[in-house]
C-alpha cells in the first residue's frame, strides 16, 4: 500500500483527491497539509511514498516547498497537481526535481495513473508535457524566457515578481542580500528585462502569478 501526502490549501480539493484515491486498493492518503510549511513538518516526522502538491499556497508556495523537500527528503517523489497549465510551470518544476506535473483539469483516471507512477518511483509525463519537452529539444530558441532560468534563479524570479524585496527573499531563502542581487542581475540579463516591475508584468502576462 502506497502512502500519499496531499498538500493543497483548499480543503475541498484535498477531500476530492482523498475520495478518489480511497477507491484504489494500492493507494491510501495518510497525511494532509494546507500549506508548504505544514507539509515540510509532516515529512520530517512521517514516512510517505509520494506527495501530491499544488503550487499556489499560503506561507510557502509549491516552488519553494519543492526546493526545500529536495533537502529534507530528496528521494521522496512529488507530483505537482496544479490549476496552472503545463506550459506555465511544468518544465521549470521538472528541472527542480518534481517527478510529474499535471493540470487539475485532467480526468480522474489520469490523476490516479500519475499518482501511482510517481509513488512507484517513476516519472509521470503527460501528453501535454511530452509535447513541451519535444518542442524544447527541437526548437530550444523558442523556449519562454522563464524556462531559461536555473532552479534557484526561477525561485528568486518568482519571489521578485511577487513583490518581495531583496532583504525578504534573503531571509526566506537563508542567503545574503548580495547573493539575491547577483541572482537578480542574472535573471534580468537572461530575460532581457530592466526592473522588478518588468518581472511582475512578465509573470502576470504569462499567468505565472495572479
TrEMBL record:
Q: Which UniProt keywords apply?
A: DNA-binding, Phosphoprotein
Q: Name one GO molecular function term.
A: DNA binding
Q: Which residues form the Response regulatory domain?
A: 3-119
Residues annotated as carrying 4-aspartylphosphate in the record are 54
Pfam families per UniProt: GerE (PF00196), Response_reg (PF00072)
Biological processes, Gene Ontology terms? phosphorelay signal transduction system; regulation of DNA-templated transcription
Domain of life per record: Bacteria
- Which InterPro entries does the protein's record reference? CheY-like_superfamily, NreC/VraR/RcsB-like_REC, Sig_transdc_resp-reg_C-effctor, Sig_transdc_resp-reg_receiver, Tscrpt_reg_LuxR_C, WalR-like
User: Known CDD domains for this protein?
Assistant: LuxR_C_like, REC_NarL-like
- Domain HTH luxR-type, residue spans: 142-207
Instruction: State what protein this is by name.
Output: Two component transcriptional regulator, LuxR family
Amino acid at each position: 500500500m502506497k502512502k500519499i501526502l496531499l498538500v493543497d490549501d483548499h480543503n475541498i480539493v484535498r477531500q476530492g483527491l482523498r475520495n478518489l484515491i480511497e477507491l484504489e486498493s494500492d493507494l491510501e492518503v495518510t497525511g494532509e497539509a494546507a500549506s508548504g510549511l505544514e507539509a515540510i513538518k509532516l515529512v520530517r516526522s512521517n514516512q510517505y511514498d509520494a506527495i501530491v502538491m499544488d503550487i499556489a499556497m499560503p506561507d510557502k508556495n509549491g516552488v519553494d516547498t519543492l526546493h526545500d523537500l529536495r533537502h529534507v527528503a530528496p528521494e521522496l517523489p512529488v507530483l505537482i497537481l496544479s490549476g496552472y497549465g503545463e506550459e506555465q510551470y511544468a518544465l521549470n518544476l521538472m528541472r527542480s526535481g518534481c517527478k510529474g506535473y499535471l493540470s487539475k483539469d485532467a480526468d480522474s483516471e489520469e490523476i490516479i495513473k500519475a499518482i501511482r507512477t510517481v509513488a512507484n518511483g517513476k516519472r509521470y509525463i503527460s501528453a501535454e508535457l511530452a509535447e513541451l519537452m519535444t518542442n524544447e529539444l527541437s526548437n530550444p530558441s523558442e523556449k519562454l524566457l522563464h524556462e531559461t532560468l536555473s532552479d534557484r534563479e526561477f525561485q528568486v524570479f518568482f519571489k521578485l515578481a511577487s513583490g518581495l524585496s531583496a532583504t525578504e527573499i534573503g531571509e526566506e531563502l537563508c542567503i545574503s542580500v548580495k547573493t539575491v542581487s547577483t541572482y537578480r542581475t542574472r535573471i534580468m540579463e537572461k530575460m532581457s528585462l530592466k526592473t522588478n516591475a518588468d518581472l511582475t508584468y512578465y509573470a502576470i502576462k504569462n499567468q505565472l502569478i495572479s
